[in-house]
Amino acid sequence: MASAQFETDFENIVFSFTVTNCNLNQVFHWGDEWAMLPFHHDLFKVNIKVVDTDTTWFYHDSFYVSAPDWVSRKEQRDYVYQVIMSQVQFCNHINSESRDDDGFKQMKKSVRDITEKTADYMIDWYKRNHKEEEKIEGEGGYVVKDGKCIIPKGITHIKNGMGWSDDDLESATIPDSVTTIGDYAFQNCPNLKTIVIPDSVTEIGKEAFYGCKSLTSIDIPCSVTKIGLGAFSNCKGLTEIIIPDSVTEIGDHAFNECDNLKRVIIGNSVNIIGWGAFEGCTSLTSIVIPESVHDIKGNILRDCLNLNSIAVAKGNKRYDSRYNCNAIIETETDTLIAGCEATTIPDSVKQIGGHAFYHYKRMTDLVLPEGLAGIGQDAFNGCIGLTDIVIPKTVTSIGQRAFEGCNGLKRITIPDTVVSMGSDVFSDCMGLTEAVVDNHIVASGLFLNCENLKEVKMAETTTIIKERAFWGCKNLNGIAIPNTVTAIEFSAFDECEALKSITIPNSVAKIGESAFCNSGLRNVVIPASVTEIGKIAFKNCFNLKSASILGPVNQLERTFQGCKALKTVTLGAGIKKIDEETFEGCTALKTINVPAKKADYYKRRLPEVLHDMIVELPAEKKTRK
After folding, report:
1. pLDDT band at residue 80 using 50, 70 and 90 as cut-offs
2. Most CB contacts within 10 A, which of 82, 272, 310, 436?
3. Is the model's pLDDT at 296 over the cut of 60?
4. pLDDT band at 132 (very low <50, low <70, confident <90, very high)
5. Is pLDDT at 30 greater than 70 in this prediction?
6. Exposure string for 198-210, b = 16+ CB within 10 A, e = fewer
């Protein structure tokens, strides 16, 4: 049984770690401790001894850790350090009151140093004594010598997670007996530069080469029929990929974030291109979809920021690039599913698909054709170069975040034909100053965080201002709520700091939680039609001086909390419940007006400290008929 000892000292404290490899039989009798182990093999027992030479204080503990072959050296060092620091209670003795001072940090550095030596011992022992003996025996086993991966002949399947995060692996040759490369087989081998795949391989598994950042080229043989999910994702060194005619399916995210990939040739037998297959390939400039493709899952070209040429081969029965439009269009539905900065949208297009132009920052000019019916979610998200866009009056639906972050837009008009809108459609459009909303619903988060939006005109048919519609519109100061609106929902005008006044019409029945919280209102009158006011509806309106609630609201909960300039409040008859924090922090409050003969009614509902502020208004004179 091999063991090693590592020592260090800090001031008067001596740390000693002894690490010993052990087998499973030596661990079973430890009972419940076995269940705490993260891995069921390659176990090492670590004995810790800490001695304070000044006070003769002594600490001792022991525990088990593992050195699995698929964990990298850095990860094993971090893991062992975390286990030791969670186990070692001597920290309380050494520095119980000032754990963050320089001395304690230096002490932890000393512990870290011998922790790394402990972890290195485990990994090196494993590589010497276990990896060559056991991995070579198993189906799909291998051994690394001098950076080269040696896989025995006769193996047909390279097993899942074979070389996961192996820092030492630099090259690999796969024997011609192998037919499948398993899931995660070479995942996160950051120094893998070359690999030879024989023409016996038919399938490359899920994330098989994910994160192999040093891999600069790879030849996919003509025997391969399927490239799995994320198979080459995050292979940042790849510059060219040729997918042979034998391949019928490219999995989801297969080449995702290969940001140096400049050239892709897709074979003529590919039927399926998975979701986000080439997403984030920022160096890719052109792509041709062969006529064999009949199923594109979506987002295949999202964030391909330098793409300027998209073509679908003639003869494809499902997709086309009509009129050389530099886009992929689903022929039957006339839906443009993927575009680029060089795209011209044909007049025949009826739908813009989700993420079709996502984050094309340099796109400055785009014409949406008359006849367009729908704009999908995130369709133009992050297109910061767009300065003007006209939504045709044929559009009936706009998906969530469709124009989010389009900072170049100055003005926008939403036509009355739009009957369906997702949330946050124009959120974070920092350059937007004017908006016209002609449809009947102001959608959730419609102008969320549009900090420079000053004026908004709503249609006279508007019925609801939905949650967060104008949240964070710090410069909004010109808006009129139509008398058709029945509800102002959650945080609709939250943080509208420039909003000094607003008229709430008699049609409104509900004001949602934090609806005008943190706004710049100076005076507010809530009409008798309102029966529900959500909590903190006007909280922290620091400039609010007077407020009137004229109707029989069910409850006031922290409604005016923190309104430190509030001087006068007028309450109508029949407010059923007022919590103690409704006027908390209203340090300027002097007068609470209530209807005639209602002083006692409100004394039973208001905190005693406010009773002296209650003033009964004169009774209204009845007029003779």
Report:
1. confident
2. 310
3. yes
4. very low
5. no
6. eebbbbbbbbbbb
Distance CA 600, CA 616 (A): 10
The token pair at 141 is 């086993």
User: How would you write 339-407 as a 3-class SS string?
Assistant: CCCCCCCCCCCCEECCCCCCCCCCCCCCCCCCCCCEECCCCCCCCCCCCCCCCCCCCCEECCCCCCCCC
Residues 6+ apart with CB under 8 A from 97: none
Cα torsion for 524, 530, 533, 537, to the nearest 10°? Answer: -20
Q: Does the model's pTM come out above 0.85? A: no
Assign domain 506-625 to its CATH superfamily.
Ribonuclease Inhibitor (3.80.10.10)
Model pLDDT for residues 39-72, shown as the tens digit of each residue: 344 566 777 777 766 665 666 677 666 655 545 5
Question: E strand or H helix at 556, and its extent?
Answer: strand 555-556
Cα 467 to the center of its chain, rounded Å: 21
CA–CA gap between residue 61 and residue 116 (Å, rounded): 18
What pLDDT score does 272 carry? 97
Tell me the two tokens of residue 521. Answer: 């209102």
Question: ∠ CA 146-147-150 to the nearest 5 degrees?
Answer: 90
- The answer on pLDDT for 449 being more than 70 is yes
Query: Dihedral of CA 104/110/111/112: which sign?
Result: positive
Q: Tell whether domain 387-499 is in CATH 3.80.10.10.
A: yes
Pick from 46-60, 71-85, 127-141, 193-207: least confident? 127-141
Tokens of 576: 């059923």
Name the one residue in this structure whose structure tokens are 């309380």: 92
Instruction: Indicate if the alpha-carbon torsion angle 374, 376, 378, 382 is positive or negative.
Output: negative
Tell me the domain boundaries of the chain: 3-135, 387-499, 506-625
Q: Which residues pair with 261 in a beta bridge?
A: none
Cα distance between the two ends of the chain: 108
As a whole number of angstroms, the distance between CA 350 and CA 333 comes to 7
Tokens 């969670």 locate to 86
Q: What is the mean pLDDT of the chain?
A: 86
Burial of 418 (0-12, 13-18, 19+ CB in 10 A): buried
